[in-house]
Specification:
- This protein has 616 residues and is an alpha/beta fold.
- It folds into two domains: 11-86 and 166-283, P-loop containing nucleotide triphosphate hydrolases (Rossmann fold, 3-Layer(aba) Sandwich), CATH 3.40.50; 340-615, no CATH class.
- The protein is built from 22 helices and eleven strands.
- Strand 7, helix 6 and strand 8 form a beta-alpha-beta unit.
- The radius of gyration is 32 Å and the shape is elongated.
- The structure holds adenosine-5'-triphosphate.
- Adenosine-5'-triphosphate binds at residues 24, 35, 53, 55-61.
Length: 616
């Protein structure tokens, strides 16, 4: 299949909004603050539209409303309908997984966005090649995303969203951070995409004259009101209708913004009234001559407009560059996504690859686990079999629990904050559902926790001469593994409700409390009855109790009392259990309690992550 054909078949979608009001709660004020005050406008297919205006004018708010990112506090009419599914939103900052190359990122996006039944893998490959060529990214195809320049990142963001050929593309400040030549290239590229029939809308700050003239429509906002909607070429004429004369050799875009900012007096009301006339969007130079009206500073007359529309319609029917999207049947004909289970499979693959590429997550962490396990083993020596060292041995068990807990909760806290911008972009642009991604991360991270804690515990267990009995070892290991997974769940939960600084602080404080109530530092029956419930919510308590009863319970043989000792208080294993008030400990119950907490944390983390993605 010819890749360019896949991209040329664009459905034309016009976006129309009327009396759009957006209100937000203003702090310390009874009344709501109106960010958008009843604006009306039309962004047409085949056109490149710029939303401009001073900072705080409401540009991003309008964009977020049109894309569907903001829903509450919005009233008025928006006609975009089923086409929302065919929209791509390129946010201001470009976020990618740093360990993948441009090629891998593109191929993964193609696999996630388009079903194999719809476009074969071979065609997806050539589609990716075609897009990389068109966006001048071929030379960077084997470069990791973290090493791309600002302009390349922006082009990659555009290429990624073009894969499933969206009919509408929204871009938030696509030229921010780019030099003038890259900015021009980017806007020229967008103009080319619009010419193919797409509706392209972007916000922009202070464009140069060259860039300004590339747009088909300029939509200016000032304090939530529309102060100009027209072609760039009509700007000077429009302003002169309210006696604002643009000096010669002055950039019309700059002059327009200066007028809107009030640099030449307060003309907001006059501008808002004049901007209601949307005929300024028609380029005067394209208008047929009309003897009745030759006044230069006016929008086209009705007669001119009728003639113009007629000639445009004729040209359109001859060229027929794109089909108008009328029904949901048309939507189905568009490239369709793979089934969600297939996306799950792809995301599991991506998470695995990411895990192996990030050496700090794999080799470094595994190496540190091994070194620490050996060091702790050397410190405690024969504590597992020597009856005189049993208090130290229980202390070592606690160290194992706390080590696994701490080294898991902290990366858990930091994991999602670093990925949230990417997840937000990808879920919003329909690459996959959040629950699919979340499930993929659980499926990928769980075996990793199992392997890492198994390596750590096995070394520690063998070096400290714990009983060589399979059942005791398996129970001991199982308790360590579940508490590690529980730490990951709590870490992710904290990472999705708090920022990294507060998250690490709360994580550290909560660990201290859990440690206090683990049953070693203060015995359970020494805690005041009213506060004892705290111990029952500490996963570390359940894990420690389980690890202790695995080693000392179930009628263990007597421990070795060195011949140099006259009396060994902990010669009988049950004495250790009694000493720590764990003689009635129930292994199954403890495991169930930790599993219940894992489920609780993981479910809560899903909903907090969902909330965070919506509000961020
Ligand atoms: N959820 C919200 N709660 C409170 N105020 C809000 C909210 N969303 C937007 N605003 C306010 O509305 C105004 C417009 O914000 P918006 O981000 O749309 O401006 P903008 O034109 O995109 O600005 P900039 O060019 O600086 O990005 C600002 O004063 C902003 O503080």
């Amino acid at each position: 299949m010819d890749s360019s054909k896949l991209l040329k078949n664009v459905y034309g979608i016009d976006i129309h909004f009327e009396d759009l009001v957006y209100q937000v709660n203003a702090p310390k004020q009874k009344e709501k603050k109106a960010v958008l005050k009843g604006i009306t406008g039309t962004f047409k297919s085949g056109e490149l539209t710029a939303i401009m205006g001073p900072s705080g004018a409401g540009k991003s708010s309008l964009m977020n409303i049109l894309t569907g990112l903001t829903k509450s506090g919005v009233s008025g009419q928006i006609e975009i309908g089923k086409a929302r599914k065919l929209c791509g939103y390129i946010m201001q900052d470009d976020h990618f997984f740093p360990f993948f190359t441009v090629d891998e990122t593109m191929l993964m996006a193609a696999a996630l966005k388009i079903a194999n039944k719809c476009v074969s893998m071979k065609d997806k490959r050539s589609l990716v090649d075609y897009l990389l060529n068109s966006l001048k990214l071929s030379k960077a195809r084997h470069t990791r995303c973290s090493n791309l320049s600002g302009g390349q990142k922006k082009r990659l963001s555009i290429a990624l969203e073009l894969i499933d050929n969206p009919a509408v593309l929204f871009l938030d400040e696509p030229t921010t951070g780019l030099d003038s030549s890259s900015s021009f290239d980017t806007i020229q590229l967008l103009r080319g995409l619009a010419n193919e029939g797409r509706t392209i809308v972007c916000t922009i700050h202070q464009p140069s004259t060259n860039i300004y003239n590339l747009f088909n429509l300029i939509y200016v906002l000032s304090s939530g009101q529309c102060t100009y909607q027209g072609s760039p070429q009509n700007t000077v004429r429009f302003l002169s209708t309210i006696e604002l004369e643009c000096p010669a050799y002055h950039n019309p875009a700059d002059f327009l913004l200066e007028c809107v900012n009030g640099d030449y007096g307060n003309h907001t009301e006059a501008l808002t009234n004049a901007a209601k006339d949307d005929r300024w969007r028609y380029d005067q130079q394209l208008m047929p001559s009309d003897e009745e009206s030759q006044v230069p500073a006016t929008p086209p007359t009705e007669t001119q407009l009728a003639k113009f529309n007629e000639s445009q319609a004729q040209a359109q029917s001859q060229k027929k560059p794109f089909t108008k999207l009328d029904s949901s049947k048309d939507l189905a004909r568009h490239t369709y996504p793979p089934a969600e289970w297939m996306r799950l499979w792809l995301l599991i693959g991506r998470c695995h690859l990411q895990f192996f590429r990030d050496w700090t997550l794999t080799y470094l962490k595994l190496g540190i686990h091994i070194i620490c396990a050996i060091l702790i083993g050397l410190f405690f020596g024969d504590s597992g079999s020597n009856a005189t060292k049993q208090i130290s041995n229980v202390g070592m068990i606690m160290i194992h629990c706390v080590y696994l807990w701490y080294t898991t909760i902290m990366p858990g806290i930091l994991r999602f904050p670093s990925e949230i911008a990417i997840i937000k972009k990808e879920t919003f642009n329909n690459w996959y559902k959040l629950r699919t991604y979340y499930l993929a991360t659980i499926i990928t991270s769980t075996p990793v926790h199992i392997i890492f804690s198994t390596v750590y515990i096995t070394i520690g267990y063998l070096m400290t001469e714990q009983p060589v009995e399979m059942e005791r070892f398996v129970k001991y290991l199982l308790s360590a593994v579940v508490v590690t997974i529980c730490a990951d769940g709590l870490g992710i939960f904290l990472g999705t409700i708090l920022n990294p600084v507060n998250g690490t602080f709360v994580g550290a404080v909560s660990t201290c409390f859990m440690l206090t109530f683990s049953g070693f530092l203060i015995l359970l029956n020494h805690i005041p009855a009213a506060l004892r419930f705290m111990a029952f919510i500490s996963p570390l308590r359940y894990a420690l109790e389980n690890m202790v009863i695995s080693l000392y319970g179930n009628q263990r043989d007597q421990l070795t009392c060195p011949p140099t000792e006259f009396y060994c208080h902990f010669k009988n294993a049950v004495t250790v259990l009694r000493q720590f008030g764990m003689e009635n400990g129930d292994f199954g119950y403890n495991i169930m309690m930790i599993l219940a907490q894992i489920a609780l944390f993981k479910i809560l983390a899903y909903f907090t992550l969902k909330r965070k993605i919506k509000t961020n």
